[in-house]
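Q: Fold this one first, please.
A: Sequence and structure below.
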Amino acid sequence: MTITPVRIAKVVVFLAALVPAALLARGLLITGDLGVNPAETIQLETGRWTFKFLLLTLAVTPVRRITGWNPVIQFRRMLGLFAFFYATLHFAAYWAFDLEFAIGSMVKDVAKRPFITLGFAAFLAMVPLAITSTKGWIRRLGKRWTLLHRLIYVAAICAAVHFAWKQKVFTGDAVRYATTRRQFGRPIAGFGAIRQKLADMAVRLYASESMLYRVAGLLDEQIAHTTDGSAIAAAPAAVAFSMSRRVIVIGSPA
């Protein structure tokens, strides 16, 4: 077998694509540095890498047309299979950690929660793409193979909405402000660093809202179970304890 620059590049890309999975495995099994909620970290990271590899797969054809470098097409199948690989890890983590492999609970969750429905639809759309990615299937399906593999657009769109819905990046006054306020002739949401900060702000906003509901509930409980002024003295301690637990979960305040 002749060693060519393209073959070497494919080996490098293959090994690099395994790094995120290897780091997650090391963090889970050896170093224990996946944060206070390793299950959530694994789900988020595998989901993000699924979406990244989907985008890289879709980018192959435009790069080929723009640059005229035809060998880049040889990377498309491998990138697509890695997208499916991380999608499988993402689904497996969700099914194992959240549902403990309960099929009935999975069916109910998919039917009840729209963002889960979209994520599951993206995964299902990728299954026939992975199965028919071999040269044998290309010969069997002929022109139908190209038509079938347009499902990658369905998978990418569903994955994008699934991720954005999960992170709640479509909501909040900060996001609306960022899309209308202009700086240097562009909406401030157009700057990559600010987009990331807005997503983080949205997550913290919803976490804070949940914490406030918990605080209100604790105050009601204290008042309901006491008939004197001791409720006023006892409530702050309970509230502080609840807030400290929430801070541990969502991270240090910005």
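Q: Good. Now the second chain.
A: Here it is, same layout.
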Amino acid sequence: MLKRTHIMVHHSLTRDGSSASWGAIRRYHVETLGWRAIGYHYGVELVGDYYEALLGRSELERAAACRQSRMNLLALHVCCVGNFDLEPPSRAMLEPLVELVIVPAMAEYGIPAEHIVGHRDFNTEKTCPGTQFDLEAVRRMCRPVTQVVKRTVPKGRVVSLQERLPRRRAS
């Protein structure tokens, strides 16, 4: 298993919709770029009325998302579908990002909230995950939830929070 030290958040730099979807990103990575799989480990996208956490490439594989400082190897990468240079992500998007992707990864790998980073933190030519994406707000959302996870999940066992949490309607 790869030793993960960070969780890196990205945005697709597209409007969420039928032409800019998780499937479209996967097809672009595989068919146009010739990669074996989508570059990210996870995605969060508006599907109908709800934001959903989506699986990408296996956590057992390095990402194809940020080669600076060996981050493809060291980080789990999650892409939020949208352009957060234009507007901030909604709370309805941030909740599944935190509760279904980030917090379980923090518990599994022992990653502290301070190691939730954006692509821009390692590649200064990027704004990713967007100039209006507040990573500190995401870190603050994670801190109380990680305390609950530490108390309720037996050591060495990963439990998905997805089954315990209600689905979120888009706002």
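Q: Anything worth noting on the second one?
A: DSSP finds four helices and five strands in the chain.
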